[in-house]
TrEMBL record, chain A:
UniProt organism field: Pseudomonas duriflava
A Gene Ontology term for the protein's cellular component: plasma membrane
Recorded family membership: Belongs to the binding-protein-dependent transport system permease family. FecCD subfamily.
Gene3D superfamilies tied to this protein: ABC transporter involved in vitamin B12 uptake, BtuC (1.10.3470.10)
One GO-annotated biological process of the protein: siderophore-iron import into cell
Name this polypeptide is given: Iron complex transport system permease protein
Automatic annotation (TrEMBL), chain B:
SMART domains in the cross-refs: AAA
Species assigned in the record: Pseudomonas duriflava
Protein name in UniProt: Iron complex transport system ATP-binding protein
Gene Ontology biological-process annotations: iron ion transport
A cellular component term, taken from the record's GO annotations: plasma membrane
Keyword field: ATP-binding, Cell membrane, Ion transport, Iron, Iron transport, Membrane, Nucleotide-binding, Transport
Family listed: Belongs to the ABC transporter superfamily.
């Protein structure tokens, strides 16, 4: 314990929450690598992990399951931290890259690239990112012009998202069957056949962006007090908000470029941490771990629930997230009644 | 009626005009805040009191004119430098869910933090002094959400005090408080002025409170200063009628001897 009584210190509940989440991720790692259609024995698994396993186990564990699991962790962490930044700058638990139109906008971008421009591969990823950024700019631009903040900005986001969703449906109805098959993946994110190169991309991106988010995240403590007081306490408010928004969008873009739009992790993970720790000052580590755990767990379910059929993980998080959103709204209404 | 203060104050404005969107709220205001005084801004709703306060603390960029703080134009300081000289408690301050009193007040030390620097003895002393001055030391482990209105307002003032600025501006600090808590808070502010060598500026709604506690009044209407001076000088029936359109008599407050406005 320090000699100081008032020094900012980590909430003990938050520390415990981080520990449990870390243990949860490790347990999930074991569950993902073993079990399923091909369940290696403990000795084979150990041999593979130590670098002298048999070719079949090597293939399944090292080339298929491990990169997919690691990518799920990275994507989940990126989305959750992004959501946490959105929610705390807007001061609203419903703010997230999903609800300001970024997610559905990236699907539109991908569909336009695939179906209208007839491009494939990296061009589609680029199209998705462009679509996401453009729709986020559109939403924040309209909100800025209309001087809408908080809840009203989210309304703008919902309106734009509905428009773009209609556009997406229209594009799909016009598509050839083969194209539609590929396009569908951009409507719901999926981690199927995820390669090491993509896993390394998302992990590298996290290694770069999460420390920046953690450093900028200190500013959230002041922004939460209201813009006027934050400025009075010496925080350059406008600059801080833009910098935070930029990092949050970059994190979402990273996740989308890796596996398409995986909904609701950004919305739910920070809120779950907040509820478990009874504090709003949740930092970056806890939401990152929570997002990683949720995404990896959802992907494990997506792989095993209807095996051999693989559910796109985005569908599963969407379904679970929808239930969670209903619960969140209901509990908020109960409180205001 | 305008009294032009000729001595240089720490904080003064020079032909300051402030806009909100495309509407001009404050017109051409030249006002000097007396050092180590308790200045209160009064006037009818929507007269630009809060906007003037925000302008003086550089939260609103001037459309014309300048604000001077400690001999320099305020916009020549960095945000952090201003925050070490001038504190503002806005009406819009909100406590994050679940935050405890000690944690909230310690955020007032932000202007003194450097990247990667840790909490210092100086920070510890300032927070303790702020909590003691506002009698909130025993509340440090309480959640701010669970406090009464009066306690919560004292906690916000503690946060502003922890900032340790020689000049402190407060936007309607007594709103939403009952009469006993209003008086308690105003006594606290007067104490701070007398013991802490601070310059205080507050927007207040209650005229009689303003007369009792302020040593300098700034009366505003329609974005201009109608008159300013000590309560005894400027609180007259004709001035009150000009300011609020209210007919009244002014008698001497039987307790404090300051002017007491009684509407007809």
């Amino acid at each position: 314990m320090s000699k100081f009584r008032f020094a900012p210190h980590a909430n003990p509940l938050l520390k415990r929450c981080q520990l449990y989440l870390l243990l949860g991720c490790m347990a999930l790692c074991l569950a993902t690598l073993t079990g399923g259609q091909y369940d290696p024995s403990a000795s084979r698994l150990l041999a593979t992990l130590l670098g002298h396993g048999d070719p079949l186990t090597n293939l399944i564990i090292l080339d298929l399951r491990l990169p997919r699991f690691l990518a799920a962790l990275g994507i989940g962490a990126a989305l959750a931290v992004s959501g946490s930044i959105f929610q705390r700058t807007a001061g609203n638990p419903l703010a997230s890259p999903d609800l300001v139109g970024f997610t559905v906008g990236s699907a539109s971008g991908a569909l336009v690239t695939l179906l209208l421009l007839q491009l494939s591969g990296n061009a589609v990823i680029l199209g998705a990112l462009l679509g996401g950024v453009l729709s986020a700019l559109l939403v924040t631009g309209i909100a800025h012009v209309a001087q809408a903040r908080g809840e009203r900005m989210i309304m703008v986001g919902i309106a734009i998202a509905a428009l773009l969703a209609a556009l997406n449906e229209y594009l799909l109805t016009r598509a050839e069957l083969d194209d539609a098959q590929e396009a569908r993946l951009w409507l719901f994110g999926s981690l199927d056949s995820l390669s090491w190169s993509k896993a390394l991309m998302v992990l590298g991106g996290c290694a770069l962006l999460l420390p920046i988010a953690a450093q900028l995240g200190q500013r959230l403590r002041l922004l939460e007090l209201g813009n006027d007081l934050a400025e009075a306490l010496g925080l350059p408010v406008a600059y801080s908000q833009y910098a935070l928004l930029l990092v949050a969008l970059a994190l979402t873009a990273l996740a989308i470029a890796t596996a398409g739009p995986i909904g609701f992790i950004a919305l739910a993970a920070p809120q779950l941490v907040k509820r478990l720790t009874h504090t709003s000052d949740i930092g970056i580590v806890a939401p990152a771990l929570m997002g990683a755990l949720l995404t990896a767990a959802a992907d494990l379910l997506a792989q095993r629930l209807l095996a051999p059929f693989q559910i796109p993980v985005g569908l599963l998080t969407g379904a679970l997230g929808g239930l969670y959103l209903i619960y969140l709204l209901a509990s908020q209404w109960r409180r205001t009644l | 009626m305008n009294i032009h203060v000729s001595y240089p104050s720490r904080l003064y404005s020079d032909k300051l005009s402030l806009d909100c969107g495309s509407t001009r709220i404050c017109h051409d205001i030249s006002v000097a805040i007396p050092d180590r005084g308790f200045t209160v801004i009064i006037g009818p709703n929507g007269c630009g009191k809060s906007t003037l306060l925000r302008g003086l603390s550089r939260l609103v960029r001037p459309s014309a004119g300048k604000v001077h703080l400690d001999g320099k134009v305020i916009s020549d300081y960095s945000t952090r430098e201003v925050a070490q000289r001038l504190g503002l408690l806005p009406q819009s301050a909100q406590a994050p869910e679940g935050i405890r009193v000690g944690e909230l007040v310690s955020r007032g030390r932000f202007p003194y933090r450097r990247a990667f620097s840790t909490w210092s003895d100086e920070d510890e002393r300032a927070v303790l002094a702020a909590l003691q001055a506002t009698s909130t030391l025993e509340l440090i482990d309480r959640e701010v959400d669970t406090l009464s209105g009066g306690q919560r307002q004292r906690v916000w003032i503690a946060l502003a005090l922890a900032q340790e600025t020689p000049v402190l501006l407060l936007d309607e600090p007594t709103t939403f408080l009952d009469i006993a808590h209003q008086i308690e808070l105003l006594n606290l502010l007067r104490n701070l002025k007398e013991t802490g060598n601070r310059t205080l500026v507050a927007v207040l709604h209650d005229l009689n409170h303003a007369c009792r506690y302020a040593d300098h009044l700034i009366a505003m209407r329609d974005g201009r200063i109608l008159f300013e001076g000590s309560p005894a000088e400027i609180i007259t029936p004709s001035n009150i009628e000009a300011l609020f359109g209210l007919r009244c008599v002014v008698i001497s407050d039987p307790v404090s001897g300051t002017p007491l406005v009684v509407p007809r």
